[in-house]
UniProtKB/TrEMBL annotation:
Positions of region (Disordered): 327-363
Enzyme class: hydrolase
Domain Peptidase C51: 3-130
Listed GO biological process terms: cell wall organization; peptidoglycan catabolic process; peptidoglycan turnover
Keyword set includes Cell wall biogenesis/degradation: yes
Key word Kinase present: no
EC id: 3.5.1.28
Pfam families from the UniProt entry: Amidase_2, CHAP, SH3_5
Protein name, UniProt field: N-acetylmuramoyl-L-alanine amidase
Catalysed transformations (reactions): Hydrolyzes the link between N-acetylmuramoyl residues and L-amino acid residues in certain cell-wall glycopeptides
Domain of life: Bacteria
UniProt keyword annotations, A-Z: Cell wall biogenesis/degradation, Hydrolase
Gene Ontology molecular function, alphabetical: N-acetylmuramoyl-L-alanine amidase activity
Length: 458
């Protein structure tokens, strides 16, 4: 028996209640007792915390202390009044994942079913029991099997979620930053920066950064329902990673989304797995769409419904893979079928995207197929925001690629205004020939500014 066979046994028993015939239900200890009895005819005694001092037979390794990283298939042991135990699925030096009984909705008299548990820390960790697997490591190991996990909340208290979580939204960052770089850049950003868009997670093949806990709202869809009721996941490096690396980044996102959907008891279907462009007209998730459907919303404009559903069905398929087996390792592409065609828009394509002309809606405004209100207007704007205002390529969206910024006291001459995502925007052409877009204040969605502008007009 190999260590992964031990993990598979635990996965197979998710949702089951293993009691070993004892009167107190599905306790954490009875989960391990049934495991070791089944494969080695070993019946450890005592509470879970006592497993670390139990006299295990020859072949079992008892590795005490925190100077180690648990390996898949290890039986971890926590201290405390009764202790706690379960089977490790993956670990790094900060956290480990496992399958445990009686962790959620714990009860000393009834227990609770086996469940996949993410991100146990080592604060109460006593060590591991390593069964005599054919491929077991000898002694304490420092080998990480889980990608880096950063559970560090941004420096702003987001509102609590109202009602239940309805599902997940997959985004593409429209930037070059890795998840670790976004962690460094965003964890202590200004409130204005968070208002410009912040998701619950930033993820690539190496790192998961949980920026906002999932009990809270995140401003990730520019839509009240999306922000409040859905968990947002940014796939990092959508503007610079190779197709292979970006697909690996996506796999780490799918694994995390699956774990959250398991936690919240959500099914995986078209109602619970959403695209950003289902909430507001946007190219996001542009890179994923270009890879899996061949349709590039930056080059070609708004995606039709059948293209959106094609991409959603792929996301659903991949999330289900981890939903059904949360022990699967993330960070590898779904298959070797990596497209060799370009899927990142060039700078020219970003700066001059597919034009969406639209129809007149009154007061000089037109609405294009993205749902963006726009009209021609020529004037000058001077920034009075001390930290400056970020400008964007492609169109007036907080989720488009950053072009640069207009600094405090700088003035631009603009020739068009837009109303989108709750902001009034202005746009102008820069020396390279690119068009850039910049929000200058909040809007009511009807072409009217709400509150003060972030500068002066002349």
């Amino acid at each position: 028996m190999k260590k992964q066979d031990g993990v598979k046994w635990a996965v197979k028993n998710i949702g089951n209640r293993l009691t070993d015939g004892q009167p107190y239900g599905a306790q954490c200890a009875t989960f391990i007792i049934e495991f070791t009895k089944k494969y080695w005819d070993v019946h450890p005694q005592g509470d879970a915390k006592d497993f670390i001092t139990y006299k295990w037979p020859k072949g079992f390794q008892v590795i005490k202390g925190k100077n180690q990283i648990p390996q898949p298939g290890d039986i971890f042991v926590f201290g405390g009044e009764y202790g706690h135990t379960g089977i490790v699925t993956e670990a790094n030096g900060t956290y480990f994942n496992s399958i445990d009984q009686n962790f959620y909705n714990e009860s000393l008299t009834k227990g609770s079913p086996a469940a996949f548990i993410e991100d146990h820390d080592y604060s109460n960790f006593l060590g591991v029991i390593r069964p005599p697997y054919e491929d077991a490591e000898k002694g304490a190991s420092k080998k990480s099997t889980k990608i880096e996990t950063i559970n560090h909340t941004i420096n702003y208290k987001m509102p609590s979620r109202s009602g239940n979580v309805k599902g997940v939204v997959i985004h593409n960052t429209a930037g070059n930053a890795s998840a670790k770089q976004d962690y460094n850049n965003l964890r202590n950003a200004s409130v204005a920066r968070y208002e410009a868009g912040i998701a619950h997670y930033y993820i690539d093949r190496n790192t998961v950064w949980r920026a906002i806990d999932t009990y809270s709202v995140a401003w990730h869809t520019a839509n009240q329902n999306g922000n409040n009721s859905y968990i947002g996941y940014e796939v990092n490096e959508s503007m610079n990673a190779s197709n292979k690396d970006f697909m690996a980044n996506e796999q780490a996102v799918f694994k995390k989304a699956a774990a959250d959907m398991l936690y919240y008891g959500l099914p995986v279907n078209r109602d619970t797995v959403k695209l950003h462009n289902e909430f507001v007209p946007t190219a996001c998730p542009h890179r994923s769409m270009a890879i899996y459907t061949g349709f590039d919303p930056v080059r070609q404009g708004a995606a039709p419904t059948n293209i959106k559903n094609q991409l959603k069905d792929y996301f659903i398929q991949e999330i289900k893979k981890y939903y059904n087996d949360p022990s699967l390792k993330a960070g590898s592409p779904a298959s070797s079928d990596v497209p060799d065609r370009p899927t990142i828009p060039t700078e020219k394509e970003q700066s001059k995207p597919a034009k969406q002309h639209g129809s007149s809606v009154g007061n000089g405004w037109k609405k294009n197929s993205w749902g963006i209100l726009w009209k021609k207007e020529s004037a000058s704007f001077t920034c009075n925001v001390s930290e400056g205002i970020v400008t964007r390529y492609t169109g007036p969206s907080l989720h488009n690629t950053i072009a640069g910024s207009l600094e405090y006291g700088q003035t631009v001459n603009y020739n068009e205004i837009q109303d989108y995502e709750g902001y009034i925007w202005i746009s102008w052409d820069v020396y390279s020939g690119a068009t850039v877009y910049m929000p200058i204040g909040k809007s009511d969605g009807k072409g009217n500014r709400v509150g003060k502008a972030w500068g002066t007009f002349s």
